[in-house]
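lol so apparently i was supposed to do this last week
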Amino acid sequence: TRVLGIEGTAWNFSAAVFDEDLVCLHSSPYVPPQGGIHPREAAQHHAAVAAEVIGKVLAEAGDDIDGVAFSIGPGLGPSLRTAATAARSLALKYGVPLIGVNHCVAHVEIGRWYTKFTDPIVLYASGANTQVLGFLNGRYRIFGETLDIGLGNALDKFARSHDLPHPGGPIIEEMAKKGSYIPLPYTVKGMDLAFSGLMSAAKEATARGESMEDVCCSFQETAFAMCVEVTERALAHTGKDEVILVGGVGANSRLQEMLRIMCEERGAKFMAPPRVYMGDNGAMIAYTGKVMLEAGSTIPIEESFVNPGYRSDQVEVTWRNDAGE
Ligand code: ATP
Ligand code: FE2
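anyway here it is w/ adenosine-5'-triphosphate bound
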């Protein structure tokens, strides 16, 4: 089965074709001229580049496709609608089924595909989302998640308050390498996390004269330790023995290192997919669309409304069993 996948929930407009493997992938990131991502401007960017990005993918892969998949949510409403409109018209044009893919589940599935881990605990850390997920009784359950903002957004906002360009995550990673640890507030509530207090405390720390390097280092150490704690507890509770890291923040090598150490100590396997599959990308939508299509999970065009608040555990996972096959 060969599926065209379209991703456009937030900053990246990206399309890919997936068959037995990735056939091709093209992306056009939206870079805000200043400040954070403006939903309407991101949607205008997506509309402006959609034909070119999808055209390139189909020119390379050929237009012999069996389905068109798109991110149906969660994400920014205007961006979601732009990608959905493109997907619907292509499904009609080629006379093939439409597949509405949950963006968070797609992050998980491309991670599972790449790592070949069957039944992992997943730390999904991105801009808008930070969740610890695991499969149980037909769904990806959210064992723990942020109660306020996503980890990536916390990093981006802190960076922006110091006039650093968007996205701030990679810049903070570089600065943190030269810093040393100073205490910042650590907030884990049961299995849940919160990052906005940490972000405010980081801003206060630089305001009272702490160095950017030290604050970046401490921000990372604190936030990542919180994520690792909840991931470890999910492993212990479920008895699973694999961990994968997905989402844009997953590109961070310190976060990868901390998870790897925790997993080694517990005798669990740890893996993170390469950067192209970590942040938002069309390949994860094409791949998840393909397994959904093979399981018969398609959506009629007239019911294909986007869902900006779509949660991972609302998806009925028709394409795998408890063992992950
Ligand atoms: P979602 O809709 O799943 O929340 P998203 O739109 O936030 O996704 P992603 O590509 O998954 O998009 O993640 C982007 C985030 O990843 C940004 O907040 C960015 O700062 C962060 N990020 C990217 N690279 C790094 C890094 N090396 N270290 C820390 N954060 C990073
Ligand atoms: Fe994402």
